[in-house]
Structure formats: C-alpha cells, structure tokens
Amino acid sequence: MKVLLLNIDSKLPNIALHKIALYHESKGDEVVWDMPMMLNSCDKVYASCIFVKNRWVCENYRGLRPDLIIGGTGYDLTVKLPPEIEEMKPKINVGFTTRGCIRNCSFCFVPKAEGKIRIVGDIYDLWDGDSKCLTLLDNNILAVPDHFKGICQQIKRENITVDFNQGLDIRLVTPEICDSLFSVKVLHSRRRFAFDFPGLAETIKSKVALMREYAPREMFFFYVLVGYNTTFEEDLFRLNLLRELNCRAYVMRHASTPKERRYTRLAEWANQIWTFAKYDFQTFCDEYVKDKGGKPL
C-alpha cells in the first residue's frame, strides 16, 4: 500500500502525521510526504490542518479525493486517531509528555480537544537519543509538579536543551517548581509564560520576583494575547508592566482583534526586543515609525 501524508500548515513536525507514518511503515507500507500531485495515485491519503484559516485547502483536496482523511485543530476537533495509531511514539524530538489542561480559557481549544490533564509519556518517548534539543508542546505541564520535576531531571541527566514551546502557567510557579525549572538549559535562554488577563498583574509581579532569585539577569518571555476580550488600554497596560519588570513580550493578535493600525504598531513595538527595551509605546509611534516612513496612528 502507498500512503500519502499532507501537512497543510504545521511549522513544527506534525506529530499526528508522524504517528500515522510510523504505523504504516511498521506494516510495510510505503509512505510519501507532501506531494499533492500524487493525490489520486496513492491508496490512502491523510491530511492535517492546524489553523482554521487554511481549512479551505483541505476542502479543495477533498474535492479531488473524496475519501481523504482529514484531522487537526484547524479542521475538526472531533476527529481522533485510531488507538493503534495514537499509541505510536515517533522519536522526532518534538511532542507531549502530558495532554489536556486544568484551565478552561474561553479562547483555547485544548480543554475541548484533550480534556483533563494526564501524563502520556516522558522524554524518552520523544527524544531520538542524539539531538541536543527537545521541544515540549505540553499545554500545562506545571499542573503536574512531580511529573515536571521528573522531566527536568531527565533533561538535565541527558544534558539537552529544552524548549517549553507553549509557555508555562505563571500561576503555578513555586520555589519547588523553580528548583526544577532553573536546573535545565532552555532554548535561547527563553523561559516562556503567558499574560492573557489584566487580572494576573499582581501574580506576574510576585512570580517574576520569585524567579529573579534564581536568575537575576534573565529576561523572562511572555506571550500576550490582545484583541480578544480586553481593550487596547488593557493590552498596553500589560505590556508596560512587563517592560517595567525587564521581561520580554510577544504580542499575539486574536482573530477578533480590531483591524486598527494601533494593534499593528503594538506588535511591531513589543515583538522586537530592542524597540521594546528602548522606547515606550508612544515614543515608538512618534519617533521610530516616523523615521522609517510609517503612517502615524
């Protein structure tokens, strides 16, 4: 059997497709990657779509191949891999050691797609034994502190660098968590967190102060969701607080963000480490953007 796998839009290795590949290869099937011109010359075709905006690509392919099997968060959250494929563990240095989350954020699909948090493996289920870097996609690994401690011990033992790619829940940071978190090397010296709600301001202050005891000079990295259920002023407040705390910020504009130039300027300002450090927002808009020939707000 010849199997075609189509990775529609994932920038990281697509774990679901790699599980499918491993399963079919174990059966002796031939696996072909990302060759849509072979859509009708393979016995079976799978596609994975991560972002809703690219759903149309899948629909076009299905129009040419009605029996196309499609899944992914951008297409249909209810589509699940069969158990015999889900249990495959491709060692591609990217993956999950937990699935699910204890939170129920309205903007996040994880609770609906994955349910309550649970342990699904450790680094040896993901790591190829050779790579010097491992990317963990766990949505809230700090919610299982003993597991997190064990994962950090494995990472330290193997002397590899880790990227907690989805960010860590700042609310769950404790001295015990810090003992583990600061015992491992992180990619680009970037420990990632999120500042999604203005109400987290006091928590951010106290947790950053705690982490400074372990890493006095580190610029902790925060994803900042804007344009969802906050005002522009609330978004700017959060960014200014992070700037005061000498942290890095990365503005993530929600799909519902108003199409206003000030949100574009906000991202241009915050997402470049040097402009965020050098200018306040108004000075950035008045001076830097003007010097570059950009349009004022």
Number of strands: 13
**CATH class group of the largest domain:** Alpha Beta
Rg of Cα set: 21 Å
Mind telling me which CATH architecture of the largest domain this is? Alpha-Beta Barrel
The order of strands across the largest sheet is 2-1-3-4
Per CATH, what is the topology of the largest domain?
TIM Barrel
Q: Specify the overall morphology.
A: globular
Q: What would CATH call the homologous superfamily of the largest domain?
A: Aldolase class I
Distance linking N and C termini: 58 Å
Q: In percent, how helical is the residue content?
A: 25-40%
Structural class: alpha/beta
Q: Which consecutive residue ranges, at least 5 long each, have pLDDT under 50?
A: none
Report on this model:
The chain is an alpha/beta fold. It has 2 domains: 2-83, 3-Layer(aba) Sandwich (Rossmann fold), CATH 3.40.50.280; 90-291, Alpha-Beta Barrel (TIM Barrel), CATH 3.20.20.70. Helices cover 35% and strands 16% of the residues. The chain is built from 11 helices and 13 strands. It has helices at residues 15-26, 55-64, 83-86, 110-114, 145-158, 175-181, 201-212, 232-244, 261-270, 273-278, 281-291; strands at 2-7, 30-33, 44-48, 69-71, 94-95, 98-99, 118-119, 133-136, 161-164, 185-186, 192-194, 221-226, 248-253. The protein has a 4-stranded parallel beta sheet, with helices on one face. A 4-stranded parallel beta sheet has the order 5-8-9-10, with no helix packed on it. The longest helix is centred in the middle third of the chain and has 14 residues, at 145-158. The radius of gyration is 21 Å and the shape is globular. The protein starts with a strand and ends in a 6-residue tail after the last helix. The mean pLDDT is 93.
